[in-house]
Each structure stands twice: as C-alpha cells, then as structure tokens.
Design goal:
The strands form two sheets. The protein has a five-stranded mixed sheet with strand order 4-3-2-5-6, sandwiched between helices. It has a two-stranded antiparallel ribbon with strand order 1-7. The protein folds into two domains: 50 residues; 176 residues, Ribonuclease H-like superfamily/Ribonuclease H (Nucleotidyltransferase, domain 5), CATH 3.30.420. The protein is of the alpha/beta class. The chain contains ten helices and seven strands. It is 42% helix and 16% strand.
Length: 271
C-alpha cells in the first residue's frame, strides 16, 4: 500500500478509551454525590464493581475540575452562659460497640435570603446515623425537643443511653433535661473550651453544609423543608459512604451489625 512502516506502529496521543470511560464513571458518581472527594469516589466505584486506582482517579478529577471546593461561614449557635446545671463529660475515650449506646446532639444554622433557619440534629454515634432532626426559625429548646422526640419515636431506645451535647442553654434547660431523665438517659456535656468534644456531629454538619446546603443555596424556609429531609434520610443515612465505618452508609453498617450481632469495625470514640 506504499505506507511507511511508522504509520503501522503509530499510537494516538489522545487519551485511551479506558480513561474516557473512567471519567464518565467518575462524573456519574459526582452527579449523584456532588460533595464526594476522590477517596469516596474511589470507594463508590469499587462498590459498583470497578477496581480503578485512586491515584488515577485523583489525577483525572484534578484535570477536569471535579475536586470539591468548600465554603466557610460561621454563626454562633452555642450559648453556655446560663444558670442551669452543667453535666460532666462521660464519653471521653468511650468504646462504642453497638447502636443505642451513645447519641450526640448539636445545633447549626442554614442561611436563606432573609435570615437563618436552625437545625437540631441527633446522631447515633455507632453508625453515625441521623436518628432525629428538626427545623425552625427559632433556636430554642422547643427545636431540640422536637428532634429528640423524633429520635425517641423512631428508635424506642432502652434506658441507659448516653446523651452527649455541648453546654448550650437549649440542652441544659429544665424542659430538655426532664425529658432525658424520663427516658432514662445518662446526660453528658462537652468540656468547656474543647472544640473536639462533639467532633462526630460537627463532622456531620460539615458534610451537610459542603455536600448539600452550599450546593443548593436555599432561598426560603420552604426550600430547606423540602430538600433537607431528603438529603438526611435518603442520601446521608442510606447512600453516602462514611470513612469512619469502613466506607459504607450508616444504615447498611447497622444492618451488618444486626445480621451478625458483631461489629466488623471496633470504634473507639474520643469526643
């Protein structure tokens, strides 16, 4: 055919088809989980049956601008200058071996056009599962009680669970403490001035902000009420991979525990 030998051995400098396919797989994961970094993208692809290398995934994500960018805002939600009793910290280096042993609570804010919406959260620390939450335009004890009542109805917990929170007036108030005592909770509060004492629930709040709130930019209270429960229940609890429990979703981790009656990962919680 009068072609030079070099033509036969020519190799295109374009990206191989396999890399294009990997990019498409990465984009599919990020479309479903917009806040995922390369580690969770890698784990999610592994769960879907692809054994792609994490270094290659990171490189492709950087090349195509797919690495996540977080935004930071801060509003104080803890008001600990009150006359109520402050309880000792019961959870420092506590070993958590199953569900309904330690619940952690906290408050955060969500900015909308004309102010803020406040969110009260309760996590079961074993699987990092959200077990109760509530939204309000007011940051008060009633908001925290609504989240607690949701958790009580859904979990029907036995007596003896530790309820851990910061020293905020909402959690120290007589109405809130009365409900905890009625249901046999052991009350624990973070040490003064220690930012790591409630780290697990603050980690959830960071995830919520970076993977949901900042991406949707809520404008009204209705926007928050319509979208946030979906993220908490369907995405975070049922789908999102959590690094501290072996990169599985919280609900799946609990189901694994109940199926085997033994936890595949031993958790030592320092808060």
């Amino acid at each position: 055919m009068n072609l030079p030998r070099s033509t036969y051995y020519y190799r295109s400098k374009n990206k191989p088809d396999g890399e294009q396919e990997l990019l498409e797989r990465i984009e599919a994961v990020i479309e479903e989980f917009p806040g995922y970094g390369y580690r969770r993208v890698t784990r999610e692809l592994h769960r879907r049956g692809f054994r792609d290398n994490h270094k290659k995934i990171l490189r492709i994500m950087k090349e195509h601008g797919l690495t996540r960018k977080t935004r930071r805002r801060w509003v104080c939600t803890t008001h600990s200058d009150h006359a109520y009793r402050v309880y000792p910290n019961l959870v420092h280096n506590l070993l958590v071996t199953g569900p309904n042993q330690l619940w952690v609570a906290d408050l955060t804010y969500i900015g909308i056009l004309n102010g803020f919406v406040y969110l009260a959260i309760l996590l079961d620390l074993f699987a990092r599962r959200v077990v109760g939450y509530a939204l309000s335009r007011r940051i008060d004890t009633a908001l925290c009680l609504e989240a607690l009542q949701m958790a009580l109805v859904q979990r029907k917990p036995p007596a003896g669970i530790i309820h851990h929170s910061d020293r905020g007036v909402q959690y120290a108030s007589g109405d809130y403490v009365d409900v905890l005592n009625q249901h046999g909770f052991r009350i624990s509060m973070a040490r003064k001035g220690n930012p790591y004492d409630n780290a697990a629930v603050e980690s959830f709040i960071k995830t919520l902000k970076s993977e949901e709130v900042y991406l949707w930019e809520y404008r009204t209270m209705n926007d928050v009420q319509n979208r946030l429960p979906y993220f908490i229940e369907e995405v975070y609890n049922h789908k999102r991979l959590h690094s501290s429990i072996g990169y599985v979703p919280p609900v799946e981790f609990e189901e694994m525990f109940y199926q085997t009656q033994s936890c595949p990962v031993t958790l030592t919680v320092s808060v």
